Amino acid sequence: MGEISLFCKFYLKTNLSCEWILNIISKHFKQPIKSGSVEIGDIAIDCFKNLTQARGETGFLYWRCCLELIPVDEDHYDDFDEFLSLAKELNNLLRANNIRTVVSCDFEEEFDNQLDTIF
User: Fold this and answer.
1) Is there a contact between 12 and 21 (Cβ–Cβ < 8 Å)?
2) Domain ranges in the chain?
């Protein structure tokens, strides 16, 4: 296995706003929202409106919101196991709140994206 990028993008199918999604995350992890982001240890979770939305498009690339999971200091963070664990917990949290997710990253095979049944 080559160099793995510790970055995940979550495509979210929901009618909830990014602010509401961040509130769910903040409450679960007991961390405050600062400048539109929640930090859990050395990892930041950012939520934003998907700018590639297109009227009539249904594929996950066009879903309403996206989350990014990134190390706060990308040059000095390399704990893959911790990053993967947090990404999986986040994915489970979102799905438990009826938010459909597709995770895109170098290790996306670790997630049950169910692309054939998710639309």
Assistant:
1) yes
2) 8-110
The pTM (predicted TM-score) of the whole model is 0.84
Q: Tens digits of per-residue pLDDT, 21-54?
A: 999 999 999 999 999 899 999 999 999 887 666 5
Contact (Cβ atoms closer than 8 angstroms) between residue 16 and residue 65: yes
Q: Are 67 and 21 in contact (CB under 8 A)?
A: yes
Task: Spell out the CATH class of 8-110.
Answer: alpha beta
Categorize the per-residue pLDDT at 1 as very low, low, confident or very high, splitting at 50, 70 and 90: very low
Place of tokens 């947090």: 86
44 contacts 72 by C-beta, under 8 angstroms: yes
